Amino acid sequence: MKRISLGTTAVDVPNVVLGLMRIADKSDDEVRALVSAARDHGIDFFDHADIYGRDLHGCERRFAEAMRLTPAQRAGITIQTKAGIVREGPYFDFSYDHLIASVEGSLRALDTDYIDILLLHRPDALVEPDEVARAFDELAAAGKVRAFGVSNHTPRQIDLLKASLRQPLVANQIQLSITHSPTIAQGVAANMADFAQSITIDGGGIVDYCRLHSITVQAWSPFQGGFFTGVFLGSDDYPELNAVIDRLAREYDVPTIAIATAWITRHPAQMQVVLGTTTPARVAGAALGSDIPLTRAQWYELFRAAGHTVP
Ligand SMILES: NC(=O)c1ccc[n+]([C@@H]2O[C@H](COP(=O)([O-])OP(=O)(O)OC[C@H]3O[C@@H](n4cnc5c(N)ncnc54)[C@H](OP(=O)(O)O)[C@@H]3O)[C@@H](O)[C@H]2O)c1
After folding, report:
1. Which end of the chain has fewer CB atoms surrounding its CB within 10 Å, N or C?
2. Domains of the chain
3. Whose CA is nearest to atom 13 of ligand 1?
4. Nearest C-alpha neighbor of 178 from the set 211, 219, 237
5. How do residues 209-265 score in pLDDT, each as one tens digit?
6. Residues assigned a catalytic role
7. Environment class of residue 32 by beta-carbon count within 10 Å: exposed (0-12), middle (13-18) or buried (19+)?
8. Where are the alpha helices (DSSP H) in the chain?
């Protein structure tokens, strides 16, 4: 498993991590088998959010109850969680009171004294950056949160926060897969007329901005065709893409999921792939994509086969 430095920190993290959004109905044994497969393949980084699960903090609680980590086991893993979405509505809330209450709830549900990384889940149109800064300062000073980041944020939204924050933002978690990659695809077709792909829909180069500012990009839904529309792997909707993935999987002697993972890890931005599968064998297969040296020709072939234009 290839490891990278998280953002501007010296914290060493794997470039394939496990998201736990889908474990609400899993038994203790199933959660333990999933986490154990991850650990066996070098994944010691776990992504949560307060809203994952049927109830608030449900998946965080499921994880903690199944794992019952000793202090030494807790110290051996990185736990990331998110705050800022209110499900009933829904609406977004980056107020001081909401962020503090969410973190306190996560700490209780996860049965831990600290969260390694807290992400602001989705941009709040009503954000007051000074309030976010006050919440972050207090959480950091109390030792309750060790690092902070964002998710689904544009470069300008990050700049706005950074003008008030005293802590660095170490990560930006965005939806990114071969088929859903507007932040990369737009740049490839920049300055072209008559291409929908040329239109900026992400505030202008999220990935480039994160590279410039040493913010680690984390790719969520790495195998979904679109927004929770089902995986493209093996799907009849993506025959050309699957033909290329299948051929490269044979060439590198890995499962197809490893090639889809490698398309993200091969990018020089040093991204992390956030897996959402609850199937241990798929975790193992994806981990094999941590460091496959796809050539430029192969990377672009996958990109074109997913329907993107290379003008
Ligand atoms: N920041 C955000 O806004 C945001 C939004 C969404 C998600 N996330 C994070 O990203 C993580 C991943 O998201 P995701 O679950 O949508 O991503 P994903 O890994 O692309 O999708 C996993 C889902 O696809 C299913 N699947 C079916 N066939 C598969 C195959 N051949 N290979 C792999 N999976 C297959 C899995 O089922 P099985 O479980 O049965 O294998 C699982 O339900 C989440 O756990 C969460 O931590 C963040």
Report:
1. C
2. 3-305 (3.20.20.100)
3. 221
4. 219
5. 999 999 999 999 999 998 888 999 999 999 999 999 999 999 999 999 999 999 999
6. 52
7. middle
8. 28-40, 58-67, 71-75, 96-110, 129-141, 155-162, 182-188, 206-212, 239-252, 256-265, 280-287, 296-305
Q: Is 152 in the pocket of ligand 1 (CB under 6 A)?
A: yes
Query: Which residue of 17, 22, 264 sits with most ligand 1 atoms within 8 Å of its CB, as the best mutation to test the pocket?
Result: 22
Contact predicate 87/56, CB 8 Å: yes
Q: Is 173 helix (H, G, I), strand (E, B) or coil?
A: strand
277 C-alpha to ligand 1 centroid (Å) = 5
Q: 306 C-alpha vs ligand 1 centroid, how far in Å? A: 19
Q: Which residues make beta-bridge pairs with 157?
A: none
Check if 249 has its Cβ closer than 6 Å to any atom of ligand 1: no
**Secondary structure of residue 149 in the 3-state scheme:** strand
How many residues can be counted in the chain?
A: 311
| pLDDT at residue 91 greater than cutoff 80 | yes
How far apart are alpha carbons 262 and 186 in whole angstroms? 20
Supply the pLDDT for residue 96.
Answer: 98
Closest CA to 43 of 299, 302, 294, 277: 277
Axis crossing angle, helix 96-110 with helix 58-67, rounded to the nearest 10: 30
Query: Which residues 6+ apart lie within 8 Å of 211 measured at CB?
Result: 268, 269
Structure tokens given for 227: 């927004």
